[in-house]
Amino acid sequence: MAERSDAARNRAAIIDAARELVAEPGELKLSAVARRAGVGQGTLYRHFTTRDELIRALYDHEIDDLVALAHTLLAQCPPDVALQRWFDQLAAYAQVKMGVIAAVEASVWQDISAQTMGKLAEALTALLDAGRDQGALRGDVDARDVILLSWFLAHLEADEWGERAPRLLSVLLDGLRVR
Q1: What is 55-176's CATH number, 3.40.50.300, 1.10.357.10, 1.10.530.10, 3.30.70.360?
Q2: What are the tens digits of pLDDT across the range 144-155?
Q3: Which of 26, 53, 84, 120 holds its CA 20 to 30 A away from the CA of 72?
């Protein structure tokens, strides 16, 4: 059965509120999420019975957006430009990811992380294949290489993010381009 439109709006508002709050310092409190989303505690708990469920939904939503974005960008611009714009969104996602990692237990994070790699690899493979087909990107690099190289995003400090993340992503992209 399809979700009612008001229930879908509430769920989206809860996830959006969690996205904002998880990036802020401190523990993610469900009561704060409900307030920010403009819903009652009961509404929040009808959608997400635990904080880990909410965080998993937030994380899945972010990954699904990244996967969809790869295909949208490939339809709109050249593959190397699509990859550059996708990296920009990957950086924004990495900021959310840092908050998610801090908010969940190790066992839950391992489960979430395992599901993520396949989805990210699919998006990156589409971007890399299109770039190779056009002769813009190297043929000897695969999605796992790029995932491993992009892990630096998880190690940036908040105060250096604005300066360092764009520069390092530019270096990564330059290394992927055919010379």
Answers
A1: 1.10.357.10
A2: 999 888 888 878
A3: 53
